[in-house]
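Fig. S4 source data, part A: sequence.
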Amino acid sequence: MTGRTSDTGATSPAGSPALRREPYPHALLDGLLDDTTATRILDWLERQASWTLERTGLYEQYRCTNILDLLFTPSAGLGTTLLRAADRLEEVFGRPMERRRIEAGAHKLVAGQYIQTHTDVPHDLTETHRAVVSLAPAAVPVTGGELLLQHSRSAVDDAVRVRAVHNRAVLMELSDRSFHSVLPVRSGIRYSLVLSYWAADVHRQPHPGRHAQAVPAPLLDFLQRIGAHEVPHTGRRAAARGHRVRRRPLSDHLIGTHAVLRSWGCEPDVCTAGLFHGVYGPLGLGTALLSPDARAPLREAIGAQAERLVHLYTALDRRTDRPAPGGGFVAGVLGEAEAAALDGSTVAGVFLISWASLREQAPGIELSGAEREEILGRLELFGSLIPPPAAADITATLCS
């Protein structure tokens, strides 16, 4: 099979990506990442990433389940990568890209795995543009696994064929024409970063959800001003199902999480923080409506303690928190050189928000046995800091 575009002369250097119109708007770009960043991200994918096998009628691949851990590997440079790709998309397609709406994923394909022809048509709140970056170990080159950009579902022979070359990126504008597939890998391991972007000139109306009447009007107005109704919330994917999840506005999820916390009898600051959890980015990566480096606007809107909980929801390294001698907890906090001392009610509040976020998505989520045991252990650890209705509901719905 010979594609209509070969690798020779098909790509542009990192500084000058060129828009190609056929079979649909796209660009091929070598060196999107600097060499050091590409090497570090590949090393992380090989050594530290966790993978789950996904099999559907459309594809067979491994999906990275802990890419957010790159947040605590700042030397890997994923944050810089997201912004650099946004800059390149703007250059190529001539449209502004949202910096507060970015999603990152990673896939791995081994011998025999593939992705069949499909197109991801932007609808509701799905992304409008995508950057796919191939990463491949130099010692074991990938054979097969070419990405095909096709005129139609059946047009393969005249497709643009992009080999899985290390640090080669494909920038794509998604539409009903953006058919693409990945040929079966013959040998080697094909890693790819999949970065999703939203054009800033696409606007949507707010969808307040059924619990909005319980939220004070000024807080609803603030959510709308920061664009929570325009940002997609995909939720947590059910384990090992490989199904596409429904998209809904982030505001729906935030308002629903607020309702869960109120139903549990949580403190007002915890409920308010639940309404804004993740606005600094989910665990610091991805869709950020507000910059964690400019916290004053949210602090003024909801108060210092509620804003602190929102910040800790993003910044608290949940892998490091532990009880401190004499009471309270110590934990790593993103951006702070040393572990922070935190009172028990603050740490419990952060976890209540996390659990309410999961509870709001039930029953469409599945937790592993280890996750359920971890929640039960924390409920016991926090004891009276957890309202009894919350402990009962969490145990019955998330840990049963």
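Fig. S4 source data, part B ends here. The two ends are 52 Å apart (CA to CA).
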